[in-house]
Amino acid sequence: MPTPLEKYPWGVIVPNPASLAALALNRAIYLNSTHKDVLVKKRDEQLLIEQSIPKRKEWVGTSGFEHFNKYIYTSGHYDDGLSVVQQQESLALISLVRDKLMPAVLFFQWLDDDNYNEVTYPHLADLGGIGLGWILPGMCKRTVTDELTAILSYSNGGVDTINKSINLVQMRDAVTKLATNAIKTLSNRLKQFNQSSKISSGFYGAGFITSIDCLVFGYLAPVIGAPWKNTILRDILLKPENKILIHFIDDMSSKLFPEVPRPTSTGENRVEEASQKSKIVKNSINALIVVGILSYFVSRSSFSPLIKVHVKRIKANWSKFLVWMYPSTKCELKGIPVYATTQSSALVEEISKFEAKNTVETVGAGFSALG
Question: pTM to 2 decimals?
Answer without folding.
Answer: 0.73
